[in-house]
Design brief:
alpha/beta; seven-stranded mixed beta sheet; 15 helices; 21 strands; six-stranded mixed beta sheet; 448 residues
Length: 448
């Protein structure tokens, strides 16, 4: 596939965060871009405003007849009638990861992999490099709050920063020069079966011939190639780590250590969550390795505004704090809740969680229950199925019974949830999950 010859592109699942970034990219290349998604969202409305045609019905009558390329996401079931239509018309059909690999193959790729932290780290690295005179190319897994976009483009930069998704082994389609591995917790067991096979896939990723340098969180247990740098929040044995973390007027301050090298004192990060300091460590390390000077890195980290749905503040009042977060794995929930407890040690924390996928809920029931028990009050919504059909015996109510907490509730709809919230008088409120819980954020915010 020669992308330079593509003039018309259609997306199956255009409203996905990674898909919409590609749609925007092809639009900037002068292509006619259109696509389908199941539901209307703020993101699909933005795409329409940018001149990209989006429809929400499965009718093939909405699909343009002449297409050079169709890009699809694995979230679209193969039973979707569009697949048969494209096969009949012999339209070139590519996965999102395959197209991303084609776009980035002639660039100096920086690929961020790992079961947690990918989006924040990808966005941090892109933000720092965008402060250089060359700028940066980046395909982000979330909406950067600094740019209100999930894509950055620069004709002067050789670098392209991408999120390397392990789901469906998609990251093996990429050929980065610099690879990052943030974490390898058991996940996507519907694809991998067990953690050993997941870990094997990460090993294949870092062993790719294109990878010249690896940055990896210390202690992940992979067979690291020769040119490897480790990072950690506070492990002094790592190549990059921090010390002297403190909080002042809502900002973090810390000292950034580089083994055998410089110490950058009093680095400032306004983005909340202690786990985001560790994310900043590897972002700064890669920026420094890429030749960015200290002052540019220091300024960029200080004004990093974060990513929508990643520790995203919606209300910050004395009587109520409301944070929305994408956390959908037990380890992510634990990191988010513990960061909130660290910031608000004397306040009652109420969490609303929408489990994502029946299989993930089944595979990690005990771990979910343990993480959610860190909350003072727990509210569960129905499981968001995404690409899955229901699994017998797996439900939010099943998970609710496992949580070791007296103050736990189940809600079926928004009206019921709002009534419960106002009866609970929350002090710190969290909405958590990767499904469509974000559509409830605005009504919750407005009700308070």
């Amino acid at each position: 596939m020669q992308l330079s010859k593509v003039k018309t592109v259609y997306f199956l699942g255009i409203g996905g965060i990674g898909m919409s970034a590609l749609a925007r990219y092809f639009k900037t290349q002068g292509c006619a871009v259109s696509g389908y998604d199941r539901t209307e969202t703020e993101l699909t409305r933005q795409l329409i405003a940018e001149g990209i045609a989006v429809h929400y019905s499965e009718s093939i009558e909405k699909i343009p007849q002449q297409l050079d390329l169709v890009i699809y996401t694995p979230a679209i079931p193969k039973e979707h009638i569009a697949f048969a239509f494209f096969e009949k018309n012999k339209t070139p059909l590519y996965k999102r990861s395959e197209v991303l690999g084609l776009i980035t193959q002639n660039k100096r790729g920086i690929a961020v992999s790992g079961t947690h932290g990918k989006t924040t780290i990808t966005t941090m690295i892109a933000h720092i490099l965008n402060h250089t005179k060359e700028g940066v190319n980046a395909f982000l897994g979330g909406i950067s709050k600094n740019y209100n976009s999930n894509i950055l483009l620069s004709s002067q930069s050789d670098y392209v920063v991408v999120e390397a998704d392990e789901y469906d082994r998609s990251f093996l389609k990429l050929s980065p020069e610099i690879a990052i591995v943030t974490s390898i917790d058991a996940d996507h067991l519907d694809i991998y079966g067990d953690k050993d096979h997941l870990k094997q896939s990460f090993q294949e990723f870092i062993d790719k011939e294109s990878v010249k340098t690896l940055f990896i969180k210390k202690g992940l247990g992979l067979n690291n190639p020769e040119n490897t740098f480790t990072y950690s929040l506070n492990d002094f044995g790592a190549d990059y780590f921090v010390q002297n973390i403190r909080v002042s007027k809502g900002s973090y301050y810390f000292d950034f250590y580089q083994k055998g090298g410089e110490v950058w004192n009093d680095m400032k990060l306004n983005y909340p969550g202690i786990h985001n300091i560790e994310n900043a460590v590897v972002a700064m390390a890669i920026a420094k390795y890429s030749g960015v000077d200290e002052q540019t890195i220091r300024q960029s980290v200080a004004d990093f505004a974060g990513v929508k749905r990643r520790f995203d503040y919606h209300i910050r009042r004395e009587d109520l704090v409301f944070i929305d977060d994408y956390a959908h794995h037990p380890a992510e929930l634990k990191a988010c809740i513990e960061s909130v407890k660290h910031l608000y040690p004397n306040k009652k924390i109420t969490g609303i969680f929408q489990p994502h996928l029946y299989s993930r809920t089944r595979d990690f029931t005990d771990e979910f229950a343990q993480s959610l028990s860190l909350l003072d009050e727990v509210i569960l919504l129905d499981i968001y199925p995404a690409r899955e059909l229901p699994i017998a015996g797996v439900s939010s109510k099943m998970l609710l019974h496992k949580i070791n907490k007296m103050d736990k509730y189940y809600c079926e709809n928004l009206e019921q949830l709002l009534t419960l919230l106002h009866a609970l008088y929350p002090q710190v409120l969290l909405t958590l999950g990767a499904g469509d819980i974000d559509k409830w954020v605005e009504p919750i915010e407005k009700s308070f």
